[in-house]
Amino acid sequence: MMNVASTFGYKIDWAQPINYKIAINSQAMSHIELNNEIVSSSRIYFICKIKKTGLLSRFLTSSTDHPEILYVGETFNKSDRYRRHEQILKATTLINDHDQLFIYFIKSHFFHISPSLWANRPQNIMKELRDLNSKSSVWLLERLYIHLFQPILNDKHKSGNIFKDSLIKKKLQDKGIRYVHLDIGMKGPDFQFWTPKRKLKSDWYYLDLETETIHEGVPKFFS
């Protein structure tokens, strides 16, 4: 009989870049949030450095021209979040005259694969993680991206063992979930995120909570 591995994941659907000089302006951010659905619905953001004068330049070809993630964060209050943002101030010290600094507002969707007869039946947990506005979902996704990319300005959650993280254990491992899949693939070089720790290798990654390892590609859903 074929067994189905309990799996859930998140896929990036779109990312809206905003120049950091605009993001730190509370009035400008309030206007953008009212008029841009991606920004208003996003709860996860990346602070990124880009080594080109034009963000949407069609001439981006090398990996160093793609947005380098300096910091992964979460927010529920965008108009006031960035005005005195400590990590933005630190990020400005990491750029030169040839760099630009952008805040990418990330919009994702949730997916879930599980056996028809799931012993733990944690439907309330799945409902919570499916809701990308819930604090549990936002906090979990933030920690997953930090673990994947290891951004230079993320001190919290980066050095620890994510497989021992209390949120991972409570919401996932203890509920019988085997794999966590992250799909970061988007079209266009302006959305190919990378860090020195996570070069551009794959659009797909997954965490195996049983073996406590991370892999490129997709998990083995069936066995």
Can you lay out the helices and strands and say which pair or pack?
Layout: E1 7-19, H1 20-23, H2 26-35, H3 37-41, E2 44-50, E3 68-74, H4 78-81, H5 86-92, E4 100-113, H6 123-130, H7 135-149, H8 166-171, E5 179-183, E6 204-208, E7 213-216
Parallel strand pairs: 1-5
Antiparallel strand pairs: 1-4, 2-3, 2-4, 5-6, 6-7
Unreliably modeled segments? 57-64
Distance between the termini: 9 Å
Extended strand count: 7
Characterize the main sheet: 7 strands, mixed
Report the total helices: 8
Could you describe the 3D structure shown?
The protein has 223 residues and is an alpha+beta fold. The protein has one domain (7-216). Helices cover 26% and strands 25% of the residues. It contains eight helices and seven strands; from the N terminus they run E-H-H-H-E-E-H-H-E-H-H-H-E-E-E. It has helices at 20-23, 26-35, 37-41, 78-81, 86-92, 123-130, 135-149, 166-171, and strands at residues 7-19, 44-50, 68-74, 100-113, 179-183, 204-208, 213-216. A seven-stranded mixed beta sheet has the order 3-2-4-1-5-6-7. The chain is globular and about 45 Å long.
Note the main attributes of this structure.
223 residues; alpha+beta; 7-stranded mixed sheet; 8 helices
How would you summarize what this structure contains?
By secondary structure, this protein is α+β, with helices and mostly antiparallel strands. Helix content is 26%, strand content 25%.
